What does this fold into?
Amino acid sequence: MDSYLKFRNVRGTKDLLPEEAELWRWVEEVIRKKMEDYNYQELRFPTFELTELFKKSTGEDTDIVQKEMFTFKDKGGRSLTLKPEGTPSVVRMYLQYGLYNRGILQKFYYIERMFRQEKPQRGRYREFRQFGAEAIGSPSPETDAELVRSALDIFNELNIHGIKLNINSIGCPKCREKFIREFKKFLCSRLDSLCNDCKRRYSTNPMRILDCKIDREKLIDVPVPLDYLCDDCRKHFSGFKERLGYLGINYSIDKHLVRGLDYYTKTVFEFTHSKLGTKDEVGGGGRYDGLIGFLGGDETPASGYAVGLDRLLLLSPQRKESRGIDVYVITLDKASDLTGWKLVNELRDSGFSADKDPLGRSMKAQFREADRQNAKWAIVIGEKEREGGSVQLKRMETGEQKEVPLNITTIKEELKC
Ligand SMILES: [Zn+2]
Ligand SMILES: [Zn+2]
It folds into this structure.
């Protein structure tokens, strides 16, 4: 197709045509509205950060840092990276601007582009869009449940059904120590049979072995963090489950769920959908009580999640009402054309979306265009109307039509009905 075209978009990027851009805009509106209903405030952050920020917060032994980052040197020799996820930047801003001074609890959301060098496939791009939420300052499982509910609420508002919630607890550094000891003891004799990544993880970040897709079957009887939780972590997990119960939210416990990122503690969760195939994850998150202290702030509990919008949109969100323009003005002769054009501009000044045909096409073609534009109203002006100082106002859905004076105030009143 069009093989003479010299330029196409780069593999792993996505163009949005007008109808897609409109869908995306609506999806973003839904997210903003919902997150603000939950009292989260929007943050926007730069496209790149110091590479060190991601190495420290995402973690050296994650797939993101090991394999997927777009890293480059600037002219001063500093290593920069296109942001592969949102949490590190949110935490950086929280610390840099002293946002903790604004109150003990700070809740943020973002809708941002992210960059990862993954193998491009359906719904997975190298430049992709994510929304996420972070609640900083609350240790309570109530906050974890609130985050989960806000995401489910957004899926629901987008008319996306069939998303499953999996949850787990991976404990705190205290109870994890004991778990890791038992876990490593168990794996010690089987290490040879594990994949190369897991062999490395065994010494760098053993817990990550739990969610290895390749070795899944070999890990069925392995010790899991859930069985080693300390009292505090166990209580926290019960609290989380209890809150989900109160909210009527269904979930499954996946004892192998650890999430790819190093900084999670206690609660982890993910959203999946069977329509997305083997990599069926739409998004997920969890608690990261250790990260803010680790990045140089005071020890501060925090929790959050992120959802990949490109993947979410594969699940065909349906808006309840379809949108079109308010008025399409149809003119039947040259003299009416100028009258119509003035009217279009008056309509726009009055807050209506309006358009007309600039090509002098036939009435039939103009009506077809009005249909195509999904116009709520058509206003028809011909010689007869022009001489009588009126227009024909047609409601496109029902076809009912009436003559009204050519006067923006009267027309405005009629359009409001
Ligand atoms: Zn614990
Ligand atoms: Zn493995």
Notes: Residues 171-172, 174-175, 229-230, 232-233 surround zinc ion (ligand 1) (CB under 6 Å).
